[in-house]
Specification:
168 residues, alpha+beta, two-stranded antiparallel ribbon
Amino acid sequence: MKDTAYTGRAWFDGRIASPTDSDGKILEPSIPDRFVASDDMHTTAESYARFLLSVMNREGLTEAVAKDRETIQLSRIADSCPPAIAITCPEDVGPGLGWEVFKFSGDTFLMHTGNDKGTFTFGYFSPTSHSGIVIFTNSSNGHQIVLPILDRLGKDPGFVAFLRATVN
């Protein structure tokens, strides 16, 4: 991934969005000085979208590993689908290899989110329909814009309906 790092780099200068808290107050960006593979990746929306496309297109992996990534490793359907939202629930949901996997009738969605103080990121794709989206925000309220953006795009209504049901 181009323009991606876990620790500070010279090319960060002038390219890091100022995070904001839930009241809109500007916060200092958090740029670690130690590499932690599970957290605090800094990248551009363009680089992440290119990465998402390569994952969606199963580039650089054997077919078996790519298929395993799209396979639910541990079902969480019972925890994710209480009776109140049952009508919107997927057939199954749970972690895959590095992604949250959602299985709907004839379609699969892989999703990954990120949340740190003053930021929220959201990305998903369907290897079935080859659609997806990347949303990066610099706000603690960033999660609130995801559903309106997905509604506006009008893609993947079953998946969006499930996401909406889980936040209401």
